[in-house]
Design brief:
Oligomer: heterodimer
Number of helices of chain A: 8
Order of helices and strands of chain B: HEHEEEE
Largest sheet of chain A: 4 strands, antiparallel
Strand order of the largest sheet of chain B: 1-5-4-3-2
CATH class of chain B: Alpha Beta
Helix content of chain A: 40-55%
Structural class of chain A: alpha+beta
Strand content of chain A: 15-25%
Largest sheet of chain B: 5 strands, mixed
Largest interface: A-B, 33 and 30 residues
CATH architecture of chain B: 2-Layer Sandwich
Number of domains of chain B: 1
Radius of gyration of chain A: 22 Å
Number of helices of chain B: 2
Number of strands of chain B: 5
Strand order of the largest sheet of chain A: 1-2-3-4
Helix content of chain B: 10-25%
Number of strands of chain A: 6
Distance between the termini of chain A: 42 Å
Order of helices and strands of chain A: EEEEHEHHHHEHHH
CATH topology of chain B: YaeB-like fold
Structural class of chain B: alpha+beta
Radius of gyration of chain B: 12 Å
Number of domains of chain A: 2
């Protein structure tokens, strides 16, 4: 295995210079292209002409993996399919171009919106648990509360990779609600459907629409 | 470089660790090999099962004489080229 060190020379294709260039290995902080964090001080090859990072050697992967895991929090849960239909419906109201791949973005924005509401004293998180417990059946209280299909329904996986800031907000909101992670996400999706579709909150809809224009 | 030579160079590079990942100022999260979500051994096991029908090749759009190889197999997408002494991955994703 060729083990590169700082100062070593190599060749690479530079997309900025549009050709084959000489490169030098050096250590840089390199961001992830989805904006979620960066790998600090990893060995990369840099174009000798434009100074752009053009290559990452195999030996840098363990450091990149560790940085990625620190920057991204994975949320995995299984929900009755109708909850995801509700989420998709709310997204579709904002933009008809929304697809399942945009769920993370919309939920992240909504989590941030809820957190700001809560900090401003306008939130309703504290009442979620109460609402859930006054529903008919403790075990399936949310499904009753939101009139989810009473028959056995197919469940689907919701997988979200959130940045550390949004993940922290989600944790805080969930703690305040006193609901389990899955029940909190169910409740949040139904609340989002309410805030976007049933009784639209103008400020929220404006924010989501602006982001959707740029990102969807 | 045809499929057999490309496959051979790819497997050898993965075994020896003689490969790099193309970057454009950032780390491509879609490249699962670069982010460590798949291992070189896993990529070898995918590529080893491929034949010529899973392979296509085109010239690099910016550098004449560099062949960009694409292997599509069972939902996997492995795109790479060779600039000696390394194999360069553009993407390894599912």
């Amino acid at each position: 295995m060729k083990f590169y060190q700082e100062g070593d020379k190599s060749r690479a294709i530079c997309s900025h210079c549009e050709g084959l260039v000489q490169t030098t290995f050096t250590r840089r902080n390199v961001p992830f292209d989805d904006g979620l964090g960066e790998a600090k001080g990893v060995l990369v090859s840099v174009c000798d002409v434009c100074d752009q990072v053009v290559g990452i050697p195999a030996q840098s992967t363990p450091a990149i993996k560790a940085a990625r895991e620190a920057a991204v929090v994975s949320i995995e849960t299984r929900l009755p399919a109708s909850y995801l239909d509700r989420l998709d419906q709310a997204m579709h109201v904002i933009t008809t171009a929304a697809a399942t791949k945009h769920r993370k973005m919309f939920l992240s924005l909504y989590i941030d919106f809820l957190a700001r509401e809560q900090r401003a004293g306008e939130g309703t998180i504290f009442t979620w648990r109460q609402a859930a417990c006054t529903a008919v059946d403790e075990k399936t209280h949310l499904d009753h509360l939101f009139n989810v299909c009473p028959h056995k329904e197919e469940s689907k996986r919701l997988s979200l990779k959130l940045n550390a800031h949004i993940a922290s907000e989600l944790d805080d909101l969930q703690t305040q609600s006193q609901l389990s992670r899955t029940d909190f996400i169910k409740h949040m999706i139904c609340q989002m459907q309410n805030d976007v579709v049933t009784s639209p909150k103008e400020k929220l809809v404006q924010e989501l629409t602006l982001f959707a224009r740029a990102a969807v | 470089m045809g499929f057999k030579a490309a496959k051979s160079a790819l497997i050898k590079a993965l075994k020896n660790g003689d490969f790099q990942h193309e970057a454009r100022g950032s780390i491509t999260v879609k490249n699962l090999l670069a982010t460590g979500q798949v291992t070189p051994q896993e990529v070898i096991s995918i590529v080893a099962r491929c034949d010529g029908s899973h392979h296509s090749c085109s010239e690099h759009h910016q550098v004449k004489g560099v062949d960009v190889h694409l292997i599509k197999y069972s939902g996997w997408y492995v795109k790479f080229y060779v600039i000696a002494p390394d194999v360069w991955f553009i993407s390894v994703h599912q």
